[in-house]
Design a protein that fits this description.
The complex is a heterotrimer of chains A (196), B (89) and C (94). With 196 residues, chain A is an alpha/beta fold. In chain A, 46% of the residues lie in helices and 12% in strands. Chain A has 2 domains: 4-40, no CATH class; 43-191, Nitrile hydratase alpha /Thiocyanate hydrolase gamma (Nitrile Hydratase, Chain A). Chain A has 11 helices and 4 strands, in the order H-H-H-H-H-E-E-H-H-H-H-E-E-H-H. Chain A has a two-stranded parallel ribbon. With 89 residues, chain B is an all-alpha fold. Chain B has a domain at 46-83. Chain C has one domain (1-56, 74-94): SH3 type barrels (Roll). In chain C, 11% of the residues lie in helices and 38% in strands. Chain C contains 2 helices and 5 strands, in the order E-E-H-E-H-E-E. The two termini of chain C are 25 Å apart. Classes of the chains: A alpha/beta (196), B mainly alpha (89), C mainly beta (94). Strand 3 (151-156) of chain A pairs parallel with strand 4 of chain C, so a sheet runs across the interface.
């Protein structure tokens, strides 16, 4: 990670680059500001949580979501469109005997719109190298200990599909509203490094 | 040739560093780099695949020592230079 | 349309391209099982090389047993692979 002592020269370098490109008309300030604003406003694990809460309470939606997530997303007011090219979303459901966890070993691909900006650990060489090799040990570093008979599947997003985990609904949550259920879901649950 | 980014299964990277309540960007310049890349791809200056390629073409020592958005900045500068868009520098 | 069907065993071609590719080193030459076809997408290698009209090919989710990849482990790893990255495993396993 970049230390504080390198941030000033780099900041100046970025400002110069931006100035040069806007002067040359390659980009405009408005485009830059809009791109940043769109990401900060639109990208959040709150979106993924909303999908999960609906899937927990509506079995038909859950089935449609697992069969074709892109088609199901508009039912909760979300969409994978809006980028340069619509990406395919694949939702994988944890069960009593299977647990899923996501990675992009080659870079850091991940559905930012539904999960929010990716955490540094997800982008790190430590995570990308180890989760495919020793997922149980990596999950334990997150405090997630899975039973010995739970099968783990690690999904490496090496192409144009983006993945999201559908965690299991926690016990003792019967009767809660969708909003209350959504509040239980964390970004780590959507990546698979937490139970929910 | 396998490149430095292709780390699946590779040893030696150690324990995870998990930062609680991490902000989307650790400095303003990272956010500007994010925005620059987004707009450059959208404006057709280069493709996302070319951007990934440019990150991967970093010298291994540089890649590993660089932070995530330092890699992005390096790739953007590489691609712009290759397209003659950086001027006299 | 898609050449490989769910459940089929495929081998990842043991290629070592010069440029950008999306075959992780850890699955090259390995045999896995087709999970599903993800649709058709422009080949990343050609997009990165600046080919004006890149090949569009089916992309498959292929599952590999950890035991096959690393010699140990009970988990599975899936990788998303363009069709030209993989080949059929013959009846005799070759």
């Amino acid at each position: 990670m970049s230390g504080e002592h390198t941030s000033t020269p780099v900041a100046a370098r970025v400002r110069r680059l931006e100035a040069r490109l806007t002067e040359a008309g390659v980009v405009t300030e408005e485009q830059l500001d809009a791109a940043l604003a769109a990401m900060l406003a639109g990208a959040s694990p709150v979106n993924g949580a909303r999908i999960v809460a609906r899937a927990w309470t509506d079995p038909g939606f859950r089935e449609r979501l697992l069969a074709d997530a892109n088609a199901a997303l508009p039912e909760v007011g979300l969409s994978m469109a809006g980028g340069i090219q619509e990406q395919r979303l694949k939702v994988v459901a944890n069960t009593a005997t299977t647990h899923h966890v996501l990675v992009c070993t080659l870079c850091s691909c991940y559905p930012i719109g539904l999960l929010g900006p990716s955490p540094s650990w997800y982008k790190s060489e430590a995570y990308r190298s180890r989760v495919v090799r020793e997922p149980r040990a990596v999950l334990a570093e997150f405090g997630l200990e899975l039973p010995a008979d739970t099968t783990i599947t690690v999904w490496d997003s090496s192409a144009e599909s983006r993945y999201m985990v559908l965690p299991r609904r926690p016990e003792g949550t019967e009767g809660r509203s969708e909003a209350e259920l959504a509040a239980l879901v964390t970004r780590e649950g959507l990546i698979g490094t937490a139970a929910v | 040739m396998s490149r430095v980014n292709d780390v699946g299964g590779q040893a030696g990277f150690g324990a995870l560093e998990i930062e609680a309540d991490e902000p989307p960007f650790h400095a303003d310049w990272e956010a500007r780099v994010f925005a620059l890349n987004s707009v450059l791809v959208r404006n057709g200056v280069y493709r996302l695949d070319q951007f990934r390629d440019a990150v991967e073409r970093m010298a291994p020592q540089e890649y590993l020592a660089a932070s995530y958005y330092e890699r992005w900045l390096h790739a953007i500068e590489t691609l712009l230079a290759e397209r003659g868009l950086l001027g006299d520098g | 349309m898609a050449d490989f069907r769910a459940g089929e065993r495929v081998r990842v071609r043991a290629v070592d391209p010069e440029g950008h590719t999306r075959v992780p080193r850890y699955v090259r030459g390995q045999v896995g099982r087709i999970v599903e076809c993800q649709g058709r997408w422009a080949l990343a290698d050609e997009c990165a090389a600046g080919v004006a009209a890149p090949r569009v090919e089916p992309v498959y989710t292929v599952a590999f047993a950890a035991r096959d990849l690393w010699g140990e482990g009970g988990h599975e790893v899936t990788v998303d692979l363009w069709e030209s990255y993989i080949e059929r495993v013959r009846e005799d396993g070759a």
